[in-house]
């Protein structure tokens, strides 16, 4: 073990202890609750700020309550290499989603400082607020405001579901009454040459394959129809012959299976970028009966991919399938309003640095797609970005979310090596 890995291990141990302490302070019953721009998130912010000061690092806070730490490089005029994640959690979530990436970024800065290394570019830790969407009905609030992708005029009036107060009121309550006056982005591509986010995987792949580190290949975008319907005709379950039926449930089932076959085909080709879910299905309780042919079914339809071309293909499949099923079964689909987000590409060069860093420390890594994170806001702002995923059991957004300390340490070691590579690269 070289001296710098020793410094990273020591800092990772302190970061782990900080994360555990914040978890205890923000536990509510079974789970962890750190409300966006609210009490739990503020507790975490105060603990993190105290850690930063105790480590002798300079803390800055922007107009939206995001926190920043700068470790100047040999050429501080160059765009910096940043890492970070978010402080908030979903209601009754786990301790690691977001917070692991926050304390990992701090650990890297502490370790680089303590090891005496002085990379060419400056390093930054960026500690974000308000990433989780349940609170204000929209995600990435802290990073969006910080990067100028949304303004307070646009989103300051959003109301938090539990408090009934607006985002502007919550910010003012935390002492950030001037948020609306911040007229330009805090950071842009001229300030940051790279953004890395360490994050728990939230899925079963790393755990299943016994690999501690994942390298995100892209952030899935999605196409969603929250309120779709299929209309058929109600009829007598025992009396209407098959050829005369306009069965809405059978029609929907065909659509569901057509998409499942499309997905299976992708997987068979070794392509893991597509996902698809029909999470809500309901016949009308006022009209349905075991003895009636169903005349209507409501459903949600939701597919995602890291590549736009796959979403385009899936959309074409949806249109084709709907037309065919309508003709064959005498039903009518109304998909309703389409909502969604575009997929976001991560930076290939940074992905390579993450893989090289893991390999240099004897750590296995696996390329895998991931979902939306703050990283998306950086990438969409023209800042090259990539993600280090850390193995975790039991998924995420639930109290059973878990992480082994050894895996966290492996993640910090990987992140540190990737940031130093980026900081010293041409
Ligand atoms: Zn997260």
From TrEMBL:
| Name assigned to this protein | Hydantoinase/carbamoylase family amidase
Family, according to the entry, reads as follows:
Belongs to the peptidase M20 family.
Q: Where does Zn(2+) 2 bind?
A: 97, 132, 397
Per the UniProt record, the lineage of the source organism begins with: Bacteria, Pseudomonadati, Pseudomonadota, Alphaproteobacteria, Acetobacterales
Q: Which UniProt keywords apply?
A: Hydrolase, Metal-binding, Zinc
Molecular functions per Gene Ontology: hydrolase activity, acting on carbon-nitrogen (but not peptide) bonds, in linear amidines; metal ion binding
Q: Does the keyword DNA damage apply?
A: no
Q: For this protein, what is the EC number?
A: 3.5.-.-
**Which note does the record give on the cofactor?**
Binds 2 Zn(2+) ions per subunit.
Q: Which Pfam families match?
A: Peptidase_M20
Kindly give the SUPFAM superfamilies that the UniProt entry links to this protein: Bacterial exopeptidase dimerisation domain, Zn-dependent exopeptidases
Q: Which cofactor does it need?
A: Zn(2+)
Asked if the Swiss-Prot or TrEMBL record annotates the protein with the keyword Transcription, the reply is no
* Organism domain of life: Bacteria
Q: Where does Zn(2+) 1 bind?
A: 86, 97, 199
């Amino acid at each position: 073990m070289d001296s710098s890995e020793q410094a990273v291990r020591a800092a990772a141990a302190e970061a782990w202890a900080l994360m555990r302490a914040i978890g205890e302070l923000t536990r509510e019953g079974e789970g962890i609750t750190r409300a966006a721009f609210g009490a739990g998130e503020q507790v975490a912010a105060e603990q993190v700020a105290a850690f930063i000061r105790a480590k002798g690092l300079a803390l800055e806070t922007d107009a939206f309550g995001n926190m920043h730490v700068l470790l100047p490089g040999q050429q501080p005029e160059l765009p910096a290499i940043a890492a970070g994640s978010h402080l908030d959690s979903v209601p009754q979530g786990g301790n690691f989603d977001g917070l692991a990436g926050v304390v990992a970024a701090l650990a890297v800065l502490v370790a680089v400082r303590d090891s005496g290394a002085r990379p060419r570019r400056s390093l930054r830790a960026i500690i974000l607020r308000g990433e989780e969407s349940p609170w204000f009905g929209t995600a990435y609030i802290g990073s969006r405001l910080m990067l100028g992708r949304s303004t307070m005029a646009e989103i300051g009036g959003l109301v938090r579901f539990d408090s009934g107060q607006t985002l502007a009121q919550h910010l003012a309550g935390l002492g950030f009454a001037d948020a609306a006056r911040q007229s330009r982005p805090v950071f842009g591509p001229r300030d940051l040459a790279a953004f890395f986010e360490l994050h728990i995987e939230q899925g079963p792949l790393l755990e299943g394959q016994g690999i501690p580190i994942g390298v995100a290949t892209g952030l899935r975008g999605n196409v969603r129809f929250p309120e779709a319907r299929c209309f058929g005709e109600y009829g007598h379950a025992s009396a209407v012959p098959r050829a005369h039926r306009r069965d809405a449930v059978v029609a929907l089932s065909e659509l569901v299976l057509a998409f499942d076959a499309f997905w299976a085909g992708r997987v068979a080709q070794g392509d893991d970028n597509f996902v698809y879910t029909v999470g809500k299905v309901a016949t009308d309780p006022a009209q349905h009966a075991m003895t009636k042919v169903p005349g209507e079914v409501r459903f949600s339809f939701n597919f995602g991919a890291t590549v736009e071309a796959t979403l385009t293909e899936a959309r074409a499949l949806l249109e084709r399938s709907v037309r065919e099923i309508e003709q064959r079964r005498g039903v009518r689909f109304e998909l309703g309003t389409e909502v969604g987000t575009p997929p976001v590409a991560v930076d290939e060069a940074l992905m390579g640095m993450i893989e090289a860093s893991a390999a240099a420390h004897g750590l296995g890594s696996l390329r895998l797609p991931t979902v939306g994170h703050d990283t998306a806001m950086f990438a969409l702002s023209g800042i090259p970005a990539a993600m280090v995923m850390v193995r975790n059991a039991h998924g995420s957004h639930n109290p059973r979310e878990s992480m082994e300390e050894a895996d966290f340490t492996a993640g910090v070691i990987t992140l540190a090596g990737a940031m130093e590579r980026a900081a010293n690269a041409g």
